[in-house]
Amino acid sequence: MRQHPAETLLLSIRAETLRLNLKRAHAAFKDLPSLLGQFKDFGDCLSNMHESAVKLSDKVADLRRGVVRGEVPRKEDVKDVHERLEDMAEGLANAKAKLTELGRKSFLVQMRAEGETTWQSLNNRAAELQGNVEEIEKDLSGPNAWQALSKAEAEANDDVFNESIELLGGIALRDARLDADICELADALIRSISKSRTHPNVIPGGISSMMMRIDRFIRLRYPEWTIWGLPLAAHELWRVSARAQFDNLLAKPFGPDGSKVIEDPTIQQCLGDAFATYFMGPAYALAAVTLLFDPTRAQDDLRVRATESMLRHMDPTKPDAFSDSYQTVADNLASAWKAAKHQAGMPIDLSKAEVVETAVATLFMRLTMFSYPYFTVAEWKSARNWAEKLHSDAAVDGIEISDKHDLRHALNAVWLARLDAARTGDISKRAHRLAHRVKAEMDQRPAEKPRGQTRGL
Asked: Does residue 80 lie in a domain region?
């Protein structure tokens, strides 16, 4: 596999992604999924059964009248009634299967208890703000009434209105099955990382810059509802599930003010990047640096450092080893980022690099201490073999998938293939096909048991 020149790597992938996203921006509208057709099929099935039941009732009534008159039922009539009953039983079975399929496809049906919990969380936030507004209303002539009301409005927008709209929109899109395959692949990816009994719900997101605070929901941010944006879902898992377990532990190396250091929004973003890299391997690092991080944003310098640092912690290979390893990936990403910063005319700001390095090292230590397995160099090298087969349709279908593979292997392979300088065209369809093949194999496996008390991601 040939490498892109570091000077143009990020710009090349970012420009290609924008071009492809613009091409598909409105394509989904013409194929907007709808359950209306399926409900019609279900209704037709019930109508046919009703018609059959009416005819059967008439036939049985005729037989009954004949028996009352002392007539012996003809063999043909009894056979006809039996066949009609069999047809009705088959129709009922088909109707049940169609109803089950409708339920399986409905995200709202699947949510159930989570929906009630989410509603209660939003309701509690709204109730607290309502109390603040009621206090303002008690003294409308007060000197600070306008300032207090402006603050309450801003908090309502941030904590209730915007998040509610984003959540409702995502749930509606998921229930309508718009880009449903991506959400279902994201579900499979979360299962690859987390072996707990319950998993966060994945929904399409709209406001790319907004960070949701509602637990149990992972957003795929628009326009990256694509195979290429899937690794970024692992960062959301840190926010909704893992952060609460580790924040206190990560704060200890920073002394009495450790909690304040760890709660800094930029440090939290860096920890999410390191966490996602730990579980996803280079797939997250490559997706984040090429699609998410912006060389014109100073805080993203630290996010690159966190990602790069975690890769180095995960690699037992010495930095000067001859074979490719995570050290090589980290070096290449650092070079590409440096080149992008230079081209953008922006200096690299690493004023908090020491804090980030310490936090990432502590996170790596804690994750390994609690026996959370990371995506190893050996697994990544096996994914490279898959990557070489992503340049032809026939080769993709010939990739052998075993029970040790999950969606992370597929995503590492497709990202390696995308960054191959020898690639001549868009490989998104092949990437999707490989991911769905892996998911199909995963769906056939028995459910894994959660690993001990610490396995709560």
From this structure: yes
How far CA 247 is from CA of 228, 237, 250, in Å, comes to 29, 14, 5
Structure tokens at 415: 């990202």
Positions of the chain with pLDDT under 50 = 29-33, 108, 209-210, 450-456
Are 347 and 258 in a shared domain? yes
- From the CB of residue 256, how many other CB atoms can be counted at a distance below 10 Å? 7
Q: Phi/psi at 176 (nearest 5 deg)?
A: -80, -5
Question: What is residue 117's predicted lDDT score, i.e. its pLDDT?
Answer: 65
Q: ω into residue 256 within 30 of 0, thus cis?
A: no
The residues facing 218 across adjacent strands are 202
> Which residues face 19 on adjacent strands?
none
Helix (DSSP H) and strand (DSSP E) numbers for the chain: 21, 2
Q: Which residues contact 207 (CB under 8 A, 6 or more apart)?
A: 162, 166
CB contact burial 362-383 (16+ within 10 A = b; e otherwise): bbbebbeebebebbebebbebb
pLDDT of residue 455: 40
Residues 196, 100 share a domain: no
Q: Are residues 142 and 274 in the same domain?
A: no
Which uninterrupted H or E stretch holds 449? none
- Determine the pLDDT at residue 113: 54
Domain membership flag for residue 111: no
Domain count, the chain: 3
Interior angle at CA 253, CA 250 and CA 258, nearest 5: 70
The confidence score (pLDDT) of residue 377 equals 93
Minimal CA–CA distance to 250: which of 86, 363, 93, 148?
363
Rounded Cα distance between 387 and 381, Å, is 10
Domain shared by 247 and 353, yes or no: yes
Give the position of tokens 């949510």: 111
Residues 163, 285 within the same domain: no
Are 264 and 344 contained in the same domain?
Answer: yes
Question: Smallest Cα–Cα separation from 324: which of 377, 282, 390, 278?
Answer: 377
Q: Contact 262/359 with Cβ under 8 angstroms?
A: yes
Backbone φ, ψ for residue 346 (5° rounding): -120, 135
Predicted local confidence at residue 449, as pLDDT: 52
Q: 407-418 and 265-280 helices cross at what angle (nearest 10)?
A: 100
Say if residues 266 and 302 touch (Cβ distance below 8 Å).
yes
Domain range spanning residue 153? 119-175
**Which one-letter DSSP state was computed for residue 72?**
P
Q: Is the same domain home to 246 and 313?
A: yes
Strands (E), 260-324: none
